[in-house]
């Protein structure tokens, strides 16, 4: 009985494999992957795009942001349809990326230099779903690692809130390819798994929100006004913008600034309550500690903090009043 069951399973799997092979031969035998998948050449291909972000890295010194994730794209191909009844009810198949037509997606504001050609992977999963004999739905989701330039302002450090935008576009004009937001869904963010699925803090920053919008580039200018006429579409490109909003996550900043201030002030005042025999020794010790604290705060610590829009160290607003306070206490008590 077991032998007969195994034979049936082998026969079933072989039959399904044969149907898949026959399906691929049927839909790709006369298919041209460089031809736009529309029968009416005046009709643009509408490509719906969705960003799924799995990691964000912010470099505050270089003023850059690197985003990693999956770029989901889908469109209708009018040359890949088939009758599911002719292929044992198969409605969906997989294929290599190079076998189907695909939009040429580029990053508009990349700072990766010569490596920008590899920011969107050339390898991807491709799903083809039949919508009848005349057309099929193509889904593709390559991985990406995009590095873009930003304009950060740390004047409100350590409570600064910033944003950075990455922009992608199709190299084909809008008369050929038009980018759209996938059902107007905002980009999804998944930087943690399981119990950390709600994670939003990465290194020194907390991600607040991720949004998207589309602009249209024409004659050197970008606008949110969508081109309508054929002449406008022939000289326009659609650009999809994804913006990441984040704020600094610095829990220990207050303690790290206040504690040296209090310790230095204590050593500054302490010699005035000590017998005169040790006065000079403790005064010298106090001055040494204060000067050392100044060097550390304005040197090493200050250099590690970002600068504000005016070019000054953003932590000056905290360290300057602190230094002035214990210096004044020294002058008054002396």
TrEMBL record:
User: What cellular component terms from Gene Ontology apply here?
Assistant: membrane
**Any keyword NADP?**
no
Looking up InterPro entries in the UniProt record yields: Neur_chan_lig-bd (IPR006202), Neur_chan_lig-bd_sf (IPR036734), Neur_channel (IPR006201)
Q: Does the keyword Membrane apply?
A: yes
Origin, by domain of life? Eukaryota
Kindly list the GO molecular function terms attached to this UniProt entry: extracellular ligand-gated monoatomic ion channel activity; transmembrane signaling receptor activity
Name listed for the protein in its UniProt record:
Neurotransmitter-gated ion-channel ligand binding domain protein
The transmembrane residues are 251-274
